[in-house]
Design brief:
Blueprint: H1 11-19, H2 27-33, H3 37-40, E1 42-45, E2 48-51, H4 59-71, H5 74-82, E3 109-110, E4 113-114, H6 115-135, E5 148-152, H7 159-167, E6 177-181, H8 186-193, E7 201-206, H9 213-232, H10 241-248, E8 249-253, H11 256-262, E9 269-271, H12 288-294, H13 296-315, H14 322-336, E10 341-347, H15 354-366, E11 384-386, H16 398-403, E12 410-415, E13 423-424, E14 427-428, H17 429-446, H18 450-454, E15 474-479, H19 484-505, H20 516-529, H21 533-537, H22 541-553
Helix pairs in contact: 1-4, 4-14, 6-12, 7-15, 12-13, 13-19, 14-19, 15-19
Bound molecules: 6-O-phosphono-beta-D-fructofuranose.
Length: 556
């Protein structure tokens, strides 16, 4: 890929720099002056209805932002990504998560390989396996069908699958559940296996590299737990431990030789490719736990949702292109209006892991200080993504969003139809829930003036405390229901938002060198934690003192 354009040198950036200092948002007035504002700034992207009208956006800003997209070459970079060019410069790789959801009859050849054929070949393998588990044809070592799938992975090999499993629970097959073990904190494996029956448990070890310390440690620990459990129950009589591992462990990885070395039958290993980044991999074999528990049909719908959003992103002009507009707005807030964080607030309990998933997607992608040609940036990149499902967040941190001193753009997500249509007497609970969703974005946008507070008879001394300044930017994202397809659309939306921001900032959104140093140091200093004095003495004074405290307090 050609070198990035320094965004600060573009005419559009300069225009935004001129607008920003005197920018004085007034959403009340903007809506009064332009009765079409909501209509003009509301878009459909696949099944998503996205209302951008409560953002701090004027025609002038919008114009400059779309010019910025052109001036940094967003269209060409997007074509380079979809076409399989090696846009992950520092790892010299194509970035082709979009190929994972191409329909079977599509064509794409990359580095001499028919990518669509490869993707669908692997999908067929995963679906055949999923169907065997679901039908009871696949049984454990004692002949019992599988009841629990345990996915062991971390980062991209965990966050996407666990988020999607939680989101799509209503689609799970009766009698089949999934659990996800990720943390190297022994608590995670301990708690997640303590009430499981090894005879009906199937473990999926998911690791792109199959070298990740946490995942391999957990995989060994759970293998021991499983074999010991089977042995204790007398289930291994006349059978070998190796055979038991083959019946109860499968793998997902790009490193299939390492899978075999672990004892997993390579026929039960599902592959993907180096052009799928970990945090972009939930729609690859990394989603095998989903294909098993939710079923191949639901997984196919999930993929078609991603693809629908890809098509929207690829084909729409910037003015109607939702991922592009949302990404550009994030640049506006980050680089010109001094926003540092971005809240994601799903009004859906099923999406309770969505903010955590987005943290890896957005922050591992765009938390960089050098451009893809190695220049230091002199502008901010990345945003801190965070959030909790509504209405829980309302009773916790919304105070700061409403009345704090910081600007926090927030994405609100809601669905017209609940999975649980429960009544509270005459009241429909989902209506009460969505009443809150609509009320919050309204309050954030339009606030409450001092006169309005006074009109309620409030004592003058406390009027200031009860004023809401408004002009707090929000985007509302709605869909008919949280289906597998809609979830795929939502994920792809944020993947492309992240891409847009990365291109504007000129950074490689697909590498993650920033996680390496800590991994190396952990391996280097762990012997000190186990009591090696020589290694301990080599540490800095603070680290020495912390490890010494640990050694003193640990009962062993
Ligand atoms: O350490 C970060 C990371 O490399 C992520 O990017 C990745 O999703 C995660 O570790 C897990 O990696 P793997 O799938 O190779 O075990």
């Amino acid at each position: 890929m050609t070198n990035p354009v320094n965004p600060t040198t573009t005419e559009a950036w300069k225009k935004l720099e001129q607008i920003a200092p005197a920018f004085s948002p007034d959403l009340r007035k903007w809506f009064e002056d332009d009765p079409q504002r909501a209509e003009k700034l509301t878009f459909d992207a696949a099944d998503l209805r996205v209302d951008l009208s409560k953002n701090l956006l004027t025609d002038e800003v919008l114009q400059a932002l779309t010019e910025l997209a052109d001036q940094v070459g967003l269209r060409e970079r997007m074509e380079a990504m979809f076409g399989g060019e090696h846009i992950n410069i520092t790892e010299d790789r194509a970035v082709l998560h979009t190929a994972l959801r191409l329909p079977k009859d599509a064509e794409l050849e990359v580095d001499g390989q028919n990518v669509v054929e490869d993707v669908h070949g692997e999908l067929e393998k995963i679906y055949a396996f999923a169907n065997k588990v679901r039908s009871g044809e696949w049984v454990g070592i004692t002949g019992k069908p599988i009841e629990t799938v345990v996915n062991i992975g971390i980062g991209g090999s965990d966050l996407g699958p666990v988020m999607a499993y939680e989101a799509l629970k209503p689609y799970a097959k009766d009698g089949l559940t999934a659990r996800y073990i990720s943390n190297i904190d022994p608590t995670d494996a301990g708690e997640k296996t303590k009430d499981l029956d090894p005879e009906t448990t199937l473990v999926i070890v998911a690791s792109k590299t199959f070298t990740t310390l946490e995942t391999l440690t957990n995989a060994r620990v759970v293998r021991e737990w499983l074999l010991n459990g089977l042995e204790k129950a007398g289930a291994l009589e006349g059978k070998s431990r190796e055979e038991a591992v083959r019946k109860h462990f499968v793998a997902v990885s790009t490193a299939l030789e390492k899978v075999e070395a672990f004892g997993i039958d390579p026929n039960n290993a599902f592959g993907f490719w180096d052009w799928v980044g970990g945090r972009y991999s939930v729609d690859s074999a990394v989603g095998t736990s989903l294909a098993v528990v939710l079923g191949p049909e639901a997984f196919d719908d999930f993929l078609s949702g991603f693809h629908a959003m890809d098509e929207h992103f690829k084909t729409q002009p910037w003015e109607a292109n939702v991922p592009a507009l949302m990404g550009l707005l994030n640049v506006w807030y980050t680089n010109f209006l001094d926003a540092h964080t971005h809240a994601v607030l799903p009004y859906s309990q099923y999406l309770h892991r969505f903010p955590a998933y987005l943290q890896q997607l957005t922050m591992e992608s765009n938390g960089k200080t050098v451009t893809w040609d190695g220049q230091s940036v002199d502008y901010h990149t990345g945003e801190v993504f965070w959030g909790e499902p509504g209405t829980n967040g309302q009773h916790a941190f919304y105070q700061l969003i409403h009345q704090g001193t910081r600007l926090i753009p927030a994405d609100f997500i809601a669905f017209a139809n609940p999975a649980w249509p429960i009544q509270d007497g005459d009241a429909d609970m989902h209506e009460l829930f969505l009443g809150n969703f609509f009320a919050q974005t309204k309050a954030l946008a339009f606030g409450k003036t001092a006169d309005e507070v006074r009109a309620e008879g409030t004592a003058e001394a406390i009027v200031p405390a009860r004023v809401f300044k408004g002009n707090k930017p929000t985007t509302s994202i709605m869909a008919p229901a949280l289906t597998p397809s809609v979830l795929g659309q939502l994920i792809a939306l944020y993947e492309h938002i992240t891409f847009v921001q990365g291109i504007v900032w000129g950074i490689d959104s697909f590498d993650q060198w920033g996680v390496e140093l800590g991994k190396v140091l952990a391996i280097e200093l762990t012997p000190a934690v186990a009591g090696d004095r020589e290694v301990l003495d080599k540490q800095d004074p603070s680290t020495q003192s912390l490890i010494s405290y640990y050694l003193e307090k640990r009962d062993k």
